[in-house]
Amino acid sequence: KDSELGHPHCSMGCGHKDDKASLASSQMASFSHQPPSTPASKEVWKKGGRMFSILLAVHLALLACTLVSSGAFEKIAVHDYDVFFLLTVMMLIVIIWIIFYLAGTSRCPGAILGKDSHAGPIWLRGGLILFAIFSLVMDVFKIGYYSSFYSCLSAIKIIYPIVQAIFVIVQTYFLWVSAKDCIHVHLNVTRCGLMLTLTTNLAVWMSAVTDESVHKAHSKLKKNMTEEIFRWLLKVGMRSSSVEECNCNSQICQIFKNGYFWLYPFNIEYSLFASAMVYVMWKNVGRFIDHHSHHIQRLKFRLFRRTFFVGIMLGLIILVSGLGVLILYEVQVNSSTESSKKSQALTMYYIFNIVCLSLMSLVCIGGSIIYRFDKRDMDRHKNPTRTLDVALLMGAALGQYAISYYSIVAIVASTPRDTISALNLTYALLMIAQHTFQNVFVIEGLHRQPPKEDCKHEAHQKDLYGLTFVNINAVSLRVPDTGSTLATGAAPGTEATHASDLVRSLTAPKKMNWRRKFLREISMFLLLSNIILWIMPAFGARPQFDNDTELNFYGDSMWPAIVDICLPFGIFYRMHAVASLLEVYIMS
């Protein structure tokens, strides 16, 4: 058509020749020496599809947040079974969409043109499965607990944990097999489905955090007040779960009740892990992978090799000591009403955390100094997973920053100042410093290229030996004493030398410099330390509620609200730091 428009007086035959010429020129251009560029997206406006899915997620998140927060108070005419009904409907819709994606979208021709090798690493998916298992156990405990009161409860309270268990199973399988997908069909439907999945996980997370906070508040009131005053406060203040009106006198009922509340932290972390992985999938919808810059890094996880065991041993000591402090804290604070035992438990808690945070801060500073001598280049390629990791580390740290600054203001402005106040002030200052230094260390480690010597060694092995050699005996069989397998026309003595060098290069261990060894020790120590700092507040050791300084300064309503809002982000920060430090350890 272009040739006919360009030559209006040309005959039909001439136009046919011009069409052939243009076709030949296009074919020659397709076989040119330049590599094929990234294919153009079929979308007219990529940001338009993203914007629509974001708006859908924002409205659903606001609706869920309104219902969850309203259902926590008695004076508002929103009940907890209204919240469960909304979450059940959202989870059912997500389950239907996931089945549609797995059975239809992902199997379309040309649906998945590439996979993001950085998305969904094996340690992240392994952590997701671990939290999913504990979430399923929690759902079993919930079903057993609510089934004991089916006569005085709404049916949705029994249906909700059943649907949640199915949702956890389906979503975990979906993220395990599809976390790396870069989908190129049904783009807008896929984006909306992923955003609905992300919003559902966040809504379940908000519901779990609110339920856990209300339960802990009721436990504190029950411990300090009589049964009559406690029931009166429930009528005028925070809502009790409707199960409180039913009797739970049997031993099996108490086991179910205490069990699923102890398992709430695992379900909370599962929802946040799943949300992060779903967000990366959403970013990869319609994305074309540049294979020249997006190389796949096959790094092996070697825990007990190439280390001095100093970081592991010191981290295990911190971990075991922290578990002992947690047990003593729970016994002396939550199970006793004596003020002296409470002061001893708080002193022990603060001293342990001050020592742990000081060591972690010094180690992070040392790691940042070692990076100054590291000769590895910075990885500047596009990586949505790393971008999300950095954003979550910086964003989740804001929760602990807020609690620390509120504590500092309350301690400095309050009088008198005792030993516990001094320890609390030191603890708050070190918490800010440790978060800052650890973020610097982790973010710099995530942006480093993998060691070049390993990559060169593996490439050299592949070039010389190929994939046919599986062991040393096979190599020695392929290299005869007098043949010319390696180099045609070379002398026999030279060939023997090359053969021995070949075998020696296979058997010789690869050396690791001192910088990489120290970085591995630092990463492992920080990883184990963050685990215990996640376990302690997640399973009840929360001095913010037991220290009277902040409660007296901000009041019984403002300070618990601040802690309930900010502390979940601080707990999530520790677990996300564990995943990021594991990646830094493997990349070192």
UniProtKB/TrEMBL annotation:
Organism name: Lamprotornis superbus
Main localization (coarse): membrane
Protein name as it appears in the record: Otopetrin 2
GO molecular function: proton channel activity
Membrane topology value: Multi-pass membrane protein
Protein origin, superkingdom: Eukaryota
Bilayer-spanning residue ranges: 51-71, 83-102, 122-146, 158-177, 261-282, 303-329, 349-371, 391-413, 518-539, 559-586
Keywords: Cell membrane, Hydrogen ion transport, Ion channel, Ion transport, Membrane, Transmembrane, Transmembrane helix, Transport
Localization: Cell membrane
Pfam families: Otopetrin
Record bears the keyword Cell membrane: yes
